Amino acid sequence: MNIKQHLRKLSQSQILSFGFITLILLGTILLMLPVSSAEGVPTNFIDCLFTATSATCVTGLTIFDTGTYWSTFGQLVIITLIQIGGVGFMSLTTIVFLMLGRKISIKNRMLIQSSLSLDSAEGIVKYVKSVLMFTFITECIGAVLLFTRFVRDYPLMKAVYFSVFHSVSAFCNAGFDIFGGGISLMGYTSSPTVTLTISMLIVLGGIGFTVAMDVLEKKGFRKLSFNSKIVLSTTLTLLIFGFVFMLFSEYNNSATIGNMPLWEKILTSLFASVTPRTAGFFSIDYSKVTTIGYLVTIILMFIGGSPGSTAGGIKTSAIAVILVSVYSTVKGRDDMNIFGRRITEQTLRKAFVMAFMPFVWTIFAVMIISMTNSLPLHDILFETVSAIATVGLTTGITTKLNALGKILIAMSMFFGRVGIMTIAYAIARKREDINAETSSFRYPEGNLML
């Protein structure tokens, strides 16, 4: 059987998984080249694999300081991986096909639908064009706003380069920075221009392209789709929750925001609520936050952004469905209703699995890493959740991990970006085969004490 026949037999989940793996390996090879490092020396495979995985999965965890270790070529490789990983390689492949005058096959349309978490493949090409246009315009606006501040600190061309790099990194929720010194945005806590622009890009990239398009077209909350209402209301709730708890928990902490004036405390706390939504930029040292701040950050990281976005996590819609289910159960209601719509049992099961599988993997990875690395358990937990949710925040232990620890964190980033369910579908038998086996009969109900 030739390669084409093998490819035709692959499921959507397998193609998406292999596509990301191929992109990661290509990035790894490029980063291993001497030209990719600032000193002109080759970099070892594990560290390059970790960096390429972090960039492609738009996470932001790094072994080396991106601004000083990598050359301009290496940084361009990283930002390219971020852009492709953020928007989706299937979306970019579609545009390339169109530019070459090739038709988009039904299978490719189905792949794009799966990669962007869409309900239908109808009008998919037009949708992809809109996504890329929205991405380009938003990143350009972000770059211009950042340039107005960076031009004061850097030469003209360097300010342009920094503005574009960080705009793309922020919109794709990647969190990579090239300021050097591993300080991310800690040098700009007093700059509303930088902090608010990065925050805006993170939120726009994290709410999902479908929701963004819906808001632009309908311009009114009541007119929005059910999905958009769930995503926006959950996102706003989490932002307020994170802001309030970070402000009050860190208010008197001199190691974070305690010595800042009130307006800067508010600005920094707001950013600390936005960035755990899988962005990875930071303006405070997370190794010095209070216990409450630490816990709130882990919760926000694990939930993450929204479906069909550049963000990771279990997604805002999944946590909303679970909370509505809990509320309905406590109230003794048979149906799960919100915004005048009923949530189906199938949706609830899917939301539960989407939350449960990353949780199980996190526990497994934390156990293995803690047994093989002499590092504090709470730091390992923070790092692992940051990886599985493709956030990129760290308490500073990334460089201290051994080879196995780096591999497990890299796997966590990959699972978080591609989706554990997608990978499970890629490994398991086709669902239609399973359904065919079980559709002819049903087991009798069993009584279970809960």
How does this structure look, described?
This protein is mainly α. The protein has one domain (11-430). A hairpin with a 2-residue loop joins strand 1 and strand 2. The protein has a two-stranded antiparallel sheet. Helix 2 (12-32) packs across helix 3, helix 9 (156-171) runs parallel beside helix 10 and helix 11 (209-218) crosses helix 12. The chain has helices spanning 3-9, 12-32, 45-56, 66-69, 72-87, 89-99, 106-115, 124-150, 156-171, 192-206, 209-218, 226-250, 262-274, 291-303, 316-330, 345-372, 377-388, 403-418, 420-427, 431-438; strands at 336-338, 341-343. The N and C termini lie far apart (52 Å). The longest helix has 28 residues, at 345-372. It is built from 20 helices and two strands.
Residue-averaged pLDDT: 84
Number of strands: 2
Number of domains: 1
Low-confidence stretches: none
Q: State the end-to-end distance.
A: 52 Å
Number of helices: 20
Sheet with the most strands, sense and barrel status: 2 strands, antiparallel
Observed structural traits:
450 residues, two-stranded antiparallel sheet, mainly alpha
Summarize the structure.
The chain has helices at residues 3-9, 12-32, 45-56, 66-69, 72-87, 89-99, 106-115, 124-150, 156-171, 192-206, 209-218, 226-250, 262-274, 291-303, 316-330, 345-372, 377-388, 403-418, 420-427, 431-438, and strands spanning 336-338, 341-343. By secondary structure, the protein is mostly helical.
